Amino acid sequence: MCDQEYFEKDRQEYEARGLVTRKQFGFILGAGVATMLPQVADAVAVTETDVTVTTPDGAADCYFVHPASGTAAGVLVWPDIFGLRPAFRQMGKRLAQSGYSVLVVNPFYRTKKAPTADAGAATPIDQVRPLAQSLNEGTQMTDAKAFLAWLDEQASVAKNRKMGTQGYCMGGPFAFRTAAAVPGRVGAVATFHGGGLVTDQPNSPHLQAANTKAQFLIAIAANDDARSPKDKEVMKETFAKANLPAEIEVYADAAHGWCPPDSRVYNEAQAEKAWSRLLALYEKALA
């Protein structure tokens, strides 16, 4: 799912030079988030709050941010394996400033409240892998239904517009399955360096997503494509057969994890390209 070697190499180099400890390294990443994301042009004023969403399995702690006035299309954001943290709050807020009502969730609420990764994206993968392994197709589908239903209860969410969902790394297949769980409500799905989008099983996320009416943006890391070069072709063929619009692209020079600004492989140029394509998708599919 996540390529921990990228994070570990940077952390080890900084520690070896005596510049930071492991905890300090993670703190620095989190603290720098606010200044790393470019500002939104013509940003709208937003209202942000921490919320609790009731699901069949408990109470999920989430971050909700939306335009301060009027209604906007709802968007459900699934973070990567490092969970809900400052980086994803900033990403959610930026999307809200662009005119969307955004719910960023803690997918690991059954086990631990956010933050679930002590050092953000610099957290050793072994510390968070059990959290990811605690979830499955069933939890993804039931959570998706609960989160979208909660969004539909909010006054700031437009009921006459489709919703969008986007997932990063581990959250990629979650986004696919969100569309499959509520196919009549989801109009757009975006994944960025998604892991496990294509499997050889009949319940593969890409096959489930193909049984919807959504439009898709699938941004693939160059090193993920090098490991699984056939996945993009499988998805292109699958979505074409289903007559579903799908922009599927390998992002050159972008390593797995390039979008969140606290990632040590954050690639601003390619992240901004992905951001622009996300806005284009939502403008078209959630109008």
What distance lies between the first and last C-alpha atoms, to the nearest angstrom?
A: 32 Å
Strand content: 15-25%
Question: Could you state the order of secondary-structure elements as H and E?
Answer: HHHEEEHEHHEHEHEHHEH
Instruction: Please tell me the overall pLDDT.
Output: 90
Counting helices, strands and paired strands, the structural category is: alpha/beta
Widest β-sheet, arrangement of strands? 1-2-4-3-5-6-7-8
Sheet having the most strands: 8 strands, mixed
Total strands: the figure is: 8
Tell me the number of helical segments per DSSP (H or I, 4 or more residues long). 11
Radius of gyration: 18 Å
- Name the overall outline: globular
Please describe what this structure looks like.
Strand 3, helix 4 and strand 4 form a beta-alpha-beta unit. By secondary structure, the protein is α/β, with parallel strands linked by helices. The protein has eleven helices and eight strands. Helix 6 packs across helix 7. The radius of gyration is 18 Å and the shape is globular. It has an eight-stranded mixed sheet with strand order 1-2-4-3-5-6-7-8, with helices on both faces.
Would you spell out the secondary-structure blueprint of this structure?
Layout: H1 4-16, H2 22-31, H3 33-36, E1 46-55, E2 58-67, E3 74-78, H4 86-97, E4 101-105, H5 125-133, H6 137-152, E5 163-168, H7 171-181, E6 186-192, H8 205-209, E7 215-221, H9 222-227, H10 231-241, E8 246-251, H11 268-285
